[in-house]
Amino acid sequence: MVKAEGVHKSFGAAHILKGIDLEVAPREVFCLIGPSGSGKSTFLRCINHLEKVNAGRLSVDGELVGYREHNGKLYELRDKEVAARRRDIGMVFQRFNLFPHMTAVENIMEAPIQVKGESKGAARERATKLLDRVGLADKAGNYPSQLSGGQQQRVAIARALAMEPKLMLFDEPTSALDPELVGDVLDVMKDLAADGMTMIVVTHEMGFAREVGDSLVFMDDGVVVESGHPRDVLGNPQHERTKSFLSKVL
Ligand code: ADP
Ligand code: MG
């Protein structure tokens, strides 16, 4: 579903991604861990067309991110084409980013109506089902300010799912939450994983990675240091940098 081959990204003189190679299979829960500043968010943003890679190949579902291939030549995607590709990718951020002037159900209805031209009735029906799925059927009429952080994050997940993405990106979805609210969000993610969603999850929740992850990558300073099954990487890290990081977070 995602393939990175020698992906590089710089911001000016700052070389952030220094040749990332990895593959995410369909239906896989792929966990990405690493110290702050190692480039995890930048990598997710490249997958989601929010940043352009400087070198290497990055593809989602067999299509190069940002380019169209035709007769062996590469053409940069136009804005409309980028928008179409981005529809297939859901992203959930550390901060919930809900529209503050819309209720929970309206937040979820917004993209299907605006982007897909879905009818209000159909969008509401779908949004209601999604709210139920994330355990918030009774909060449809609440504004974000009337929801806890964990509830807002579950609405944000439902909002991403409303576009029926084939890939979900989670960038530290529980890092901004009070500890007692983390479990409900992780439960929603587990449910999604059990349902076969392909997910890339940047997280510091090692319990989630161990229990739900199919593979895990430890990234440091813009490179993949170590990867494998979460049980192996977390239980028996091979590299000094991985050991040192895990000793701080476990
Ligand atoms: P992580 O998510 O692993 O904490 P990030 O991908 O957010 O790391 O950031 C990696 C590095 O890239 C940081 O040093 C950050 O300051 C830098 N960076 C990220 N985005 C930009 C940007 N738009 N312009 C300049 N530097 C950036
Ligand atoms: Mg980050």
From TrEMBL:
Molecular-function GO term, any one: ATP binding
Keywords of the record: ATP-binding, Nucleotide-binding, Transport
Family per similarity comment: Belongs to the ABC transporter superfamily.
Keyword Transport: yes
Transmembrane portions of the chain: none
PANTHER family to which the protein is assigned, alphabetical: AMINO ACID IMPORT ATP-BINDING PROTEIN, PHOSPHONATES IMPORT ATP-BINDING PROTEIN PHNC
Protein name, UniProt field: Amino acid ABC transporter ATP-binding protein
Domain of life of the organism encoding this protein: Bacteria
